[in-house]
Amino acid sequence: MNVAGIQGRQSDTGIFATGLYAGGELWFFAKKAGFGAEIDEARMVIKNTGNVGIGITTPSEKLDVRGNIKLHSDGSLYAPGGVENLRIIRGTVNGDGTINQGSGFTVNNPSTGVFDINFTTAFSIKPTVVCSGMHPTDGANTDGVIQCLVNHPNQITTTVARLIITDGANVIRNSPFSFIAIGPR
Q1: Quick one: which of 47, 48, 67 has its CA closest to 57?
Q2: In the Cβ-directed half-sphere of 58, how many Cα atoms lie within 13 Å?
Q3: For a disulfide at 32, which of 23, 41, 84, 117, Cβ 3.0-4.6 Å?
């Protein structure tokens, strides 16, 4: 028989955990605010599957939280949320194809103005990719406009996105750019 247990003492706030539970699950209770000492409410559970629930007693993931999550050493940041389990990769690439900022990708520059962003870990389906051209630092005349294009939807796969950089005269050229790829894990 799997059992788990934890024992504590009731504090002034009414928080306590006690007992052995069959099945190897740990349950944490607290007194429900505004009620007498006889009413306990489950606040957290650690299931025998390893899933942890905070604010829910039937967690379906390794950590399943009902409520807001605060992060950072001073609690000033909230965890982002979405209806999909998404991954974001972002970066800035120099005109010569070297990575200026970002991680989780490599870059190939197979021909002038053509850049392949290779995702280190594949997305489960094609991600959405947006990019923005930046003015080159080599002093080249670009007619004031640098465009970064996702040339064709077929040029994005779960592992690579092909981006094309053009100037204001629609001349394909090597120039720095930034991109964001977002898609399901």
Answers
A1: 47
A2: 0
A3: 41
Closest by CA position to 104, among listed 94, 89, 117: 89
pLDDT digits (tens, 9 = 90+) for 13-57: 544 444 555 566 787 777 666 655 556 678 888 888 889 999 998
Give CB contacts under 8 A, 24+ apart, made by 22-30: 23/48, 24/48, 27/57
* Tokens (6 digits) for 129: 């990719």
Cβ atoms within 10 A of the Cβ of 167, count?
Answer: 21
Can you name the CATH fold of 86-184? Immunoglobulin-like (2.60.40)
Give the separation between CA 138 and CA 178, rounded to whole angstroms.
17
What would the two tokens of residue 73 be? 């050493």
Residue intervals in the chain for CATH 2.60.40: 86-184
